Amino acid sequence: MRTVLVGLLLLLFRSGVFSLMEQSVNGDIRNFVVGNGKVFVVTDSQLLQMKHDLVVEKHKNISNHTHPNRLTVLLPFDANKTLISCGTSDCGYCEVLDLDDISRSIYREGVSAGPSVEESSVAFLVDFHERNSENGAYILVARENEAQVKKKTDQTICGSVDDTGVTLRNTLDSQPGEIFSRSQTDSIANISPKGDVEWVDGFQTSSPSHSYLLVNVNPEADAAVMVLRMENSHSKSDMTKSLKGAELQCCDDEPRRKLLSSAVISSGSPLLWVGVFTAQAELENTVLAIYDFSQIRSQVPSQFTCSPACTPEGGNAVLAPRAVVLRHSSMTSVAAEKKGSWIVIYIGTNNGQLMKMVLDKNFRSGCVTVLYRSDDDRMVFPRMLFDPVDNQYIYIALRNQIRRVAVTQCGTYSTLRDCRSSQDPFCGWCVTTSKCSTNAECSSSSWISIPEDSFQKKLTTFLISEVSTEVTLNLHLNVEGTHNPNFTCTFKAGAEDLCSPNAVFPNCSCSFLSQRLPANVTVTVTIGNQTITENLKLRSCPDITETSPYAKCVACVSAGCHWSSGSQACSWAHGSVDSLTFNDTCQGLSSGEHAPQILSLEPNEVSFHGRNNAVMKGKNLRLVEKIRFQGSAECTTKETPVTERSSDTLKFNIPSGNKGSTRVCVVTADGHCHSNTIITYGSQPTCTGLQPSVTWASGGRKIQLCGDNLKYVDTVIVSPKVITPVFFLNKTFWFHTHGLREYKDSFNVSLRVGNKTVDCVDKLSYLPDPEFITFSTFGTGVKHVTIQKKTDMLNISIADVKVWGLSGEKLHECKIKEITPTAVICMILGEKEDVMSVDSVKVEVGEFKTDVHVNESNYIYILVALIILILLGSLVGVLIHRKSQRQMSARMNERLELLESKIRNDIRQGFVDLQTEKLDLIENVAAIPFLDYKHFALKIFFPEGGPLAAMMIKDIGQVTVTMEVDEKCQAFSALIRDQMFLTCFVHALEEQKNFSIKDKCMVASLLTVALHGDLPYLTQLMEDLLQSLMDQPSNAQPKLLLRRTESIVEKLLTNWMSICLYGFLRESVGQPLFLLVSALTQQISKGPVDAVTEKALYTLNEDWLLWQAQDFNFNPLKLNVLFAVGTEGEVSEPLEVNALTCDTIEQVKEKILQTFQRKFGFPYTQQLREIDIEYEKEGSYMPLEEVDSSSEVQGDVTMLNTLMHYQVPDGASLKVMTKKVHAPLSPQTSVKDDQNFSTKYFHLIDPDIDRDESNHPERKKLKLKEIYLTKLLSTKVAVHSFVENLFRSIWGMPNNKAPSAVKYFFDFLDAQAEKKKVSDTDVLHIWKTNSLPLRFWVNILKNPNFVFSDLEKTHHLDSCLSVIAQAFMDSFSLSDQQLGKNAPTNKLLYAKDIPLYKQEVKTYYKLVKDQPSVSSQEFKTFLQDESKKHENEFNESAALRELYKYMNRYFSEIIQKLDQKEASSKLKEEMHRVKDLFEDMKRSAWT
Question: Pick the residue with more confidence: 1009 or 443?
Answer without folding.
Answer: 1009
